[in-house]
Fold:
Amino acid sequence: MSLNNQVLDRLISQELPYVEANLSYLVPMAEKPVNYTYEPPPGIPRTNATYQTHKLPIYNARSISENISLDREGFAFTGHNTNVRNFYDEDEVRRVYYPEAEQLLKEVTGGTKVVIFDHTLRNASQSKPGENNIKEPALRVHNDFTAKSGYTRAHLELAAQGIDDIDALLKQRFAIINVWRAMSTTGYAYAQPIQESPLAVCDAQSIALTDIVAGDLVYRDRVGETYGITYNANHKWFYFPQMHRDEALFIKCFDSAEDGHARFAAHTAFKDPTSPANAPPRESIELRTFVFYPA
Structure:
C-alpha cells in the first residue's frame, strides 16, 4: 500500500460523510464488449455486454479535495468562475469556455499545451437521440479511453485540427483529461446545483489492471475503444455533492506515462438516494482535452 493510499484510508476512517448507492458494473465476459452509438442494423443488439449493480459507499470528498490529485487518484476538484452565460450556445462554449478551460488546465496540471477536441452536454429532459447532441447521464462504470485508443484518438483529433509534428508531440507525455461542470437553463444568476444523477469517480489507485476491460465503441464512420470496469470490492468511490457552475471536476481518462502516475479513473453517474424526488434533471457539460506536459 502506498503512502497516499494510507493517507486516503485514514481520511475515510475519519468518518467522511457518504451515501450508499447502486453502481452498474460490467459482468465479466469471454468475448470483447461491443457498444453501438447508434441503432444498429436489425438483428444486431445495441450491446453484447451485461451489467450488474453493486451497492457501495460513495464518500463526500469536498473536505479532502486538497489531498486529492490527478497524478495520484486520477481526479481533482477546484472552484473556478466562468463567464459563460448559456452553455447550450455552441458558439459561446467554443468562444468563451474553451479558452477558459485551456488556461485552467495549464494551471492545474502544469501542462504546456492544451487541445480541446470535444464537449458533451447532458440533460435527460432535453436529450433527443438523432435530433440533438444532448445526452443523458451515463449510468455505468466506465473510462472513456484505453491504452490503445488514447493514442489513436489523439492522432485523429490533432490531424483534424491541422496540428503539425503529431508524431513528435505524442512522444512526450500527454494525458486526456475531462473537465466536468454543472450548468443550468435557469439563467446565470439562478443556476441550481446538481442534485439528481451526480457523478462519482473512483480512486485510480484502487483499480486493478484485471478490473479494466477494453470494448469496441462503434460509430457510423469508425470504431473507438473504451474501458468497461468489472466489480472489485477494493474500489474507493468519491463525489462532490451539490456541484454548481463555478466549480470544476477533472477526470483523467488516459495518461501516456507508465511510471506510476494514475492512468485511468473510472467514473459513472449514480442515483443519489438523498436526491429530492422533485429534483430537476442534472445539467452538465464535459470537455475532453489533451494536456501535453513539459518534455
